[in-house]
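Q:
Got a chain?
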Amino acid sequence: MVTRPRERAEELCFLLEDEGAEVFSLPLLELRPPEDPRPLASAAEHIQRYRWVVFASPSAVDALLDALREAGTSDRLSGVKLAAVGPRTARAVKGYGLDVAAEPEEGTGQALFEMLKDGLQSGDEVLLPAAEEGRRELEDALREAGVLVTRVTAYRSLPAELPLEALELLGASPPDVAVFASPRTAEAFLEAAGRERLGSARVVAIGPTTASALEQLGLPASAIAERPTPESLVDATVRAVRGS
């Protein structure tokens, strides 16, 4: 479960380095399986009962597909519509040879709900595999529309222990720009390193959800990526550096 996030971080680092940036990548979270794997396994065994499966992250895609393979029910997914929040998650679904029936341009749960709501009926069953500590706006919106949502923990994201050398480096030389790809990473950074280690860094957010979380944490974003992709994050970082 940790492979895809690391691959995305590496891609972003390479793109930033191509722009002439000196990049310091700091892994802040470790992805772990759920403490109780039974709800995910049960959902995989009865996958055909759901009208939609809604994925909010690539890691959720990996977790459910692993559970389907273990349950021997992967073929039953063909009768279920799949939705994805954001292009990275959609790419993860397509990487398994599956079709994405709904993918909003704006990579937020609310945007996906707006795309789905007209085609949903009260009583429809939707499976939402998600991070244990994942945000609830999509789930809440679906429930308010009368949809029967089964939310199962697909994985947990736990704070990683930061090396002392990394903390010392940040203290001695704070970054000019700090790029955050999720609310959870921002929270983990502040818990592990503290606000002071950012100095006067400009802050970049991967999207509006992360930007809102940063605002609440007292770190207003200088720039927000137009789409949740490494390329858009690079563009936002350039804007932040230029002050535009």
